[in-house]
Amino acid sequence: MPIEFKDYYAILGVKKDASPDEIKKSYRRLARVHHPDLQPEKQKAQAGEKFKEINEAYEVLSDPGKKSKYDRIGPGWDAAQAPPPRREARQASPDAESFAGFSDFFESLFGERGSRSQSGRPFRAGPRQGQDIEAELPLSLEDAFRGGEKKLTIEAPALCPACGGSSRQGRGFCPDCGGVGEVSQNRSITTHLPAHARDGMRLRLRGQGAPAPGGGRSGDLLVRVRLLPHPLFKVSGVDLETTVTVAPWDAALGGEVAVPSLGGTIRIKIPAGTRTGRRLRIAGKGLRKEDGSRGDLYVVARLDIPESTDGRMAKLYEQMREASR
Ligand SMILES: [Zn+2]
Fold it and tell me: Cα separation of 124 and 134, whole Å?
């Protein structure tokens, strides 16, 4: 019988450009649905075939080496060119164990290396690295500026406590994780935020990502800093911008105003002849740079008159009107 090409993407129901995460999600969903142990006795064998196919597809598409080989060959592969399948690696008995085998197509592509590994794991060939996980860390500007220890809770995959990531219990698949070897868990993480943290900055926490069921290295956790909008400051790189209200007489004659800054309120000089929209630079009051120095704070002047005008002030405004004629 000629060896049939298997469309692993179709089997997992993913697009060809699906991300590792999408492939994994789809696999986990399908593996749960088609798990032989969850089927009525009569449908076990049939579900087992399907389960085996899903596992095989995942075995290939989740392994960068196998995936690229598979992608290179594509549906145009020539069955006649394929080496004969290694029959001896396969089992004929119809018990649950046989769901662990691989198709002739798989074995002709990857040989017995892809088959049952030395560790006895049915679907995973040797240790491999766990996946990286991304998480977001929303921070107020003040918190980011302060730096230091930050706590966040993430939902991350962990090795299934029931089967220890082996996917199996006894001679069957682990019912707790549906044979995936992983479960989702909320995890509390403490990370050290550098004092120059900025929006979009990624912190890599080595080994805090998804575990590797084959005994390999865990993936990394990538924490992305997201600065929350601030009511007073606009952030632009390491510079900040804020607006300050200036009274007409300070604007005309020069004066001093209170300005908010990250370290608390400061007083700055308003030069004589300041008009609305003028940007005053206050050096070194912005965010921290990597070298420890700081960006600048820009203060934009906005002219306004006091809310109430008494008789004396009205007289002075009159005089100003006279003088400007
Ligand atoms: Zn399990």
Answer: 24
Count Cβ atoms below 10 Å from residue 75 Cβ, excluding itself: 7
204-226 per-position pLDDT tens digit: 999 888 887 667 888 899 999 99
Work out the angle at residue 271's Cα, subtended by the Cα atoms of residues 267 and 277, and round it to the nearest 5 degrees: 90
State the distance from the centre of ligand 1 to the C-alpha of 169, rounded, in angstroms.
7
Domain spanning 133-227: which superfamily? Urease metallochaperone UreE, N-terminal domain (2.60.260.20)
How far, in Å, is the centroid of ligand 1 from the Cα of 178? 7
- The CATH class for the domain spanning 234-324 reads mainly beta
What whole-number percentage of the chain has pLDDT above 70?
83
Q: How far is the CA of 222 from the centre of ligand 1 (A)?
A: 26
User: Which CATH number describes the domain made up of 8-114?
Assistant: 1.10.287.110
Question: Identical fold at 8-114 and 133-227?
Answer: no
The domain ranges of the chain are 8-114, 133-227, 234-324
Q: Which residue has the tokens 């868990």?
A: 185
pTM for this model (two decimals) = 0.55
